[in-house]
Design a protein that fits this description.
The chain is α/β, with parallel strands linked by helices. The chain folds into 2 domains: 152 residues, Alpha-Beta Complex (Quinone Oxidoreductase, Chain A, domain 1); 150 residues, Rossmann fold, CATH 3.40.50. It has 9 helices and 15 strands. The strands form 3 sheets. Strands 3, 4, 5, 6, 7, 14 and 15 form a 7-stranded mixed sheet that branches. The chain starts with a strand and ends with a strand. The relative contact order is 0.15.
């Protein structure tokens, strides 16, 4: 086994603006054997997430940044091929922070087993993985939707947004999605059951909100930030809840992050805006996954994955997130 090579992408520099292939170093290193307490995992699928851009910055956050020269952090699923850990056996499929590489070798901190006979492996990176957990807890705990509420989702055709919108529908809300392009907007309504859609690429978002949310917005689930956040703040209903799940429009700014100009709408409407980090809910993931799997079995919840093949395509595949090119949960097949 030591003769095998492990292809890896290391963080080579901290990008200013969009990352590129030069942000990373591609290396091939000899594959080792697990020591006591370690496992060796053959990575099968990697999750490509907007959060990865934040992990490249040397700044205080909810998780330490990736160090220069370290394997780029990524969640993924794979199969254990050697183990010196009592909880994991050869043949087990696992989900964890495996990194952008062919193989993970180390202590399985935060790893857990998944069952490929119950669901396709990419689903454990989308609806049944961290993406689904993010949508579930951000909407239900922070957004606290009530039946009859109007819920607006930005980035609605993306990984988290598409699931959050469907959960809001399950809870009896009127759901309006903001997405880029007619194809994505049709998908929201025809496939996912959204009540309305606003195409930010071809129409004025403020006018679309006025049309789709005549009584105002009770819950805004924000994945985008910037101008779209500003537009929705002008349509808030009294006691509205704004969930700050992400701000993908701001992640590659070369200048300071653009804050909301219309934040006084929070005061006037006695509304609140609250940030969200999914790992705060780790102890409840298993219960949420069971409920999500039940909704999927009943046909109430659909998951769409956008799978790109080949580890070496990683730098270019990651950029699909920031151009809006991906359609559904972006996954890299190793």
């Amino acid at each position: 086994m030591s003769a095998q090579l492990n292809r890896q992408f290391l963080l080579a520099q901290r990008p200013v603006g969009l990352p590129s292939r030069d942000t990373f170093s591609y290396v091939e290193t000899p594959l080792g054997e697990p020591a006591a307490g370690q496992i060796l995992v053959k990575n099968l699928y990697l999750s490509l997430d907007p959060a990865m851009r934040g992990w490249m910055n040397d700044a205080k956050s909810y998780i330490p940044p990736v160090g220069l020269g370290e394997v780029m952090r990524a969640l993924g699923v794979g199969q254990v091929i050697a183990s010196q850990h009592p909880d994991f056996a050869v043949g087990d499929h696992v989900n964890g922070a495996v990194g952008v590489q062919d193989y993970f070798l180390g202590e399985p901190k935060g790893f857990y087993k998944v069952d490929p006979s119950r669901a396709p492996l990419p689903l454990y990176l989308s609806a049944l993985g961290m993406t689904g957990m993010t949508a579930y807890f951000a909407l239900l705990d922070v957004g606290a939707p009530k039946a009859g509420d109007t819920v607006v989702i930005s980035g609605a055709a993306g990984a988290v947004g598409s699931i959050a919108g469907q959960i809001a529908r399950i809870k009896g809300c009127r759901v309006v999605g903001i997405a880029g392009g007619q194809e994505k907007c049709r998908f929201l309504i025809d496939e996912l059951g959204f009540d309305g859609a606003i195409d930010y690429k071809s129409e004025d978002v403020a006018a679309g909100l006025k049309r789709e949310c005549p009584k105002g917005v009770n819950v805004f689930f924000d994945n985008v930030g910037g101008d779209i956040l500003d537009a929705v703040l002008t349509r808030l209903a009294p006691k509205a809840r704004v969930v700050i799940c992400g701000a993908i429009s701001q992640y590659n700014n070369k200048e300071a992050v653009k804050g909301p100009a219309n934040y006084l709408a929070l005061l006037v409407n006695r509304a609140r805006m609250e940030g969200f980090v999914v790992m705060d809910y780790a102890a409840q993931f298993a219960d949420a996954a069971r409920e999500m799997a039940g909704w999927m079995a009943e046909g109430k919840l659909k998951s769409k994955e956008d799978i790109v093949e080949g580890l070496t395509t990683f730098p270019e595949a990651l950029l699909k997130l920031f151009s809006g090119e991906n359609f559904g949960k972006l996954v890299l097949k190793v």
